[in-house]
Write a structure and sequence with these properties.
With 228 residues, the protein is an alpha/beta fold. The protein is built from six helices and nine strands; from the N terminus they run E-E-H-E-H-E-H-E-H-E-E-H-E-E-H. It is globular.
């Protein structure tokens, strides 16, 4: 599309979600998750947990950035010491819920705080934590998923993609000039770390103490993602 190989019909437009580069002649919306990922890492650090990132694939720029941001929060002095487990070298890593379920006995024996940035694959870990009781904590992804592992999910990293689309459509309908690329971060209110019931004080305290640094990290990764 960037070289005009697939031109849009005259008078038509396209809205592409979760795309950060500016190399396409269509409108794009991206919600940067690195601020919330960093704060999730800070939660693990603040309660002295042994964390692990479960990444669908590190070949995906957003997955790599989210993993790195979490590690920065979980161990500010030595982020490379935080374990990152890559499930696949390709996008099949987003569709491995059953495989992750089978990995959980070993994972939960070694770690007790999980950041599963793996799309639908994370459902395998949530299901395991429903089936077996344990002192583990896990972060929900993209929406409030606390009902999927109510005894173990301390918070969810919520992306308000629905709200981002509504805001874009409102501007489009009003005939306002819209830049081809729109990127939303924490200050927009469209990405946040939302506490599960019983964890409100912990998550709110961590967010208050680390919010400014989270926004700084978000800006760094926004530039990185935009250039990839």
């Amino acid at each position: 599309m960037s070289d005009g190989a697939f031109p849009l019909p005259e008078g038509k437009d396209m809205l592409m979600l979760e795309y950060f580069a500016d190399d396409l002649p269509v409108h794009t919306i991206g919600i940067v998750a690195m601020s919330a990922a960093y704060l999730a890492g800070c939660v693990a650090d603040s309660i002295d947990r042994t964390p692990a990132v479960i990444a669908a694939t590190l070949s995906d720029p957003q997955s790599l950035a989210a993993a790195e941001a979490f590690c920065l929060g979980a161990d500010p002095e030595h982020p490379d010491n935080v374990t990152v487990i890559e499930l696949s070298d390709g996008y099949s890593g987003f569709y491995m819920a059953d495989s992750l379920y089978r990995m959980c006995p070993d994972l939960t024996a070694r770690y007790d705080f999980f950041f599963p940035y793996a799309g639908g694959t994370a459902l395998g870990m949530y299901r395991y934590m429903r089936d077996y009781s344990g002192p583990w904590m896990v972060v929900g992804m993209d929406m409030d998923q606390s009902d999927l592992a109510p005894d173990n999910m301390c918070c969810s990293m919520i992306k308000r993609i629905d709200r981002a689309i509504v805001l874009w459509m409102d501007s489009y309908i009003r005939g306002e000039e819209i830049p081809l690329r729109t990127i939303h971060g924490m200050e927009s209110g469209l990405i946040s770390l939302s506490p599960s019931e019983g964890y409100e004080t912990l998550i709110e305290d961590v967010t208050a103490r680390h919010r400014n640094r989270a926004i700084e990290i978000e800006q760094i990764y926004t530039e990185i993602l935009s250039s990839r």
